[in-house]
Amino acid sequence: MKLINKCAIITGGNQGFGLAVAKAFIMAGANVVLCARNQAKMDETEKHLKEILLYPGQLVCIRADISKNIDTERLVELALNKFGGIDILVANAGVYGPKGRIEDVNWKEWSNAIDINLKGTVLTCKAVIPSMKSQKKGKIIILSGGGASRPMPYLSAYAASKAGVVRFMETLSEELSEFGVSVNAVGPGALNTRLLDEILDSGPERVGEMLYEQSLKQKENGGVPLEKGAELCVYLASADSDGITGKLISAVWDPWRNFEKYKVKLRDSDIYTLRRIVPDDRGEKW
C-alpha cells in the first residue's frame, strides 16, 4: 500500500471527486482527514466510508469552510492531534460560482467563488506548510480543472480562480523545494459531478450554447471516470512521484504513469506548466 501510515487532508471530500480521492487514499492505507461545508452530507459520507476502512481510526471527518482562516487552522490542528503529522494535502474544495456575462453576474457571488477556489486553497496550504517544513517532507496536490488552461466564457470567476491556483502552485513549489515538499496541480478531466448538473440546470442562455451542448453530451457519455484522477492523486501523494513538483498534470492526457524515466527532463523543463508560447528563432512564418 503506497500511502500506509501517511496522514492526508482532503478538502471538499463529501461528494464527487473528493470522495473518490478519499476512497482511493483509504484503500492505499492512508489516514484520512476529510472536510466539507455540508454537515448532513458529511455524516452520510462518513457512514459510507467507514464500510471500507482497513483499520479503526483511519478516517476523521469535520465540517470546515476553507475560505475561513479559523476553520483551516482548526482542520490542521485536528489532523496533528489525531495523527501526529500531515504528509499530504489534497486541496479539492471548489465551486463554479455565478454563471453568465461578467456585467450581469452578482458581484458577491463572484467574489465568494474567488474566496473559496483561490483564497481558500491558499489558506489551506498556508495552514499545513509549517508541519510539512518541520518534517522536511510533504505532498500538496491542488485541483485545477479546465479553467486553468483555457478561457471559459460565462464562468469567469471559476476560470480566473483556477488559473490563479495553478500559478500559486508553481510559485509555492519553488518556495518549498528546499524543504522536500512537492506541490503539483491535477486536471481530473470532464467529470460527471454536481458541477456538471449546475451547468445543465443553468441552461444555454446563462452558460452559452457551446458549453451547454458539450455538457449534454458529457452527461450522456458518462464523462471521465472519477477513479482516473483519484489514481493520479495517489501517485502524486506517494514516494513514486518524488522529484516531481511545480507541474499541472492531466489525469487523462499526460503520460504520468511513465514519469519515472523522465524525472530529470521534467525538472529542467517548462512542460506541464503555464507559460507564454513564443515563436522559435528559425524565422517561422505566422
What features would you describe in this structure?
This protein is α/β, with parallel strands linked by helices and 286 residues long. The chain is built from ten helices and seven strands. It has helices at 16-27, 39-49, 69-83, 107-135, 156-176, 194-202, 204-207, 209-221, 226-237, 263-267, and strands spanning 7-11, 31-36, 59-63, 88-91, 138-143, 181-187, 248-250. A seven-stranded parallel β-sheet has the order 3-2-1-4-5-6-7, with helices on both faces. Strand 2, helix 2 (39-49) and strand 3 (59-63) form a beta-alpha-beta unit. Helix 4 runs parallel beside helix 5. The chain is globular and about 50 Å long. The protein starts with 6 loop residues before the first strand and ends in a 19-residue tail after the last helix.
Name a few traits of the molecule.
single chain; seven-stranded parallel β-sheet; 286 residues; alpha/beta; 10 helices
List the helices and strands and how they pair.
Blueprint: E1 7-11, H1 16-27, E2 31-36, H2 39-49, E3 59-63, H3 69-83, E4 88-91, H4 107-135, E5 138-143, H5 156-176, E6 181-187, H6 194-202, H7 204-207, H8 209-221, H9 226-237, E7 248-250, H10 263-267
Parallel strand pairs: 1-2, 1-4, 2-3, 4-5, 5-6, 6-7
